[in-house]
Amino acid sequence: MQKLSRKLVHATVGPLFVMAWPLFSMSPSAPMWAAVVPAANAVRLAAVGSGVWEDPGLVASVSREGGRRELLKLEASTHTGAWQAAAAAGPGGLVAVSMMCGGDGLADIVGRRYGATNKLAWNPAKSAAGSLAMLLGGTTMALGLLTLFWSLGYLTWSQARGPLDLLPQVLVCSAVATLVESLPINHVLDDNWTVPLVAAVFAVALLPT
């Protein structure tokens, strides 16, 4: 139950934060102000992880093994999220958040439940079920967020009638991020960094601005 709770937080906090972006103005400084939210959360995680502030409920809800020091790793990842919100608040930021939350978050939930018999050949810690869930979940969330921001007028694409026309590009972003998440490199490069970073880079390169 704790692992499910942690992943539900992982999967929902990003899109909920992104959906608050329209509350900010169109000022060039607005993404920086939006980034204050994850940055403040990073400070809270750092305080709890270092023992300065005690919050057993927070530790139980977001840590893998129940140790407070795990939050220090999450603190670094949250800083990454703050940077992404500030520097890639357009399509790249939306796709990055989608792959990290709707993709990676769903992959763990589905993989644990249905992945026991379909482990990946290059990484037995991952499964085909989890990777497929990441691909579909990340793509669906990305298209949903792109559609939302397009309908609100924040995104305009002269060469596309709407976000669904960009499905091939979004699928490429999702596929590359899914491949990166499946690689046996998490002990060296945390996928909380690599997945959104790769997704954002490909989204910026492939999606119109």
From TrEMBL:
Main localisation: plastid
What EC number(s) is this enzyme filed under?
2.7.1.182
Q: Where are the transmembrane segments?
A: 132-154
Biochemical pathway:
Cofactor biosynthesis; tocopherol biosynthesis
Can you tell me which family this protein belongs to?
Answer: Belongs to the polyprenol kinase family.
Which PANTHER family does the UniProt record give? DOLICHOL KINASE, PHYTOL KINASE 1, CHLOROPLASTIC
This chain's protein is named phytol kinase
UniProt source species: Haematococcus lacustris
Organism lineage reads as: Eukaryota, Viridiplantae, Chlorophyta, core chlorophytes, Chlorophyceae
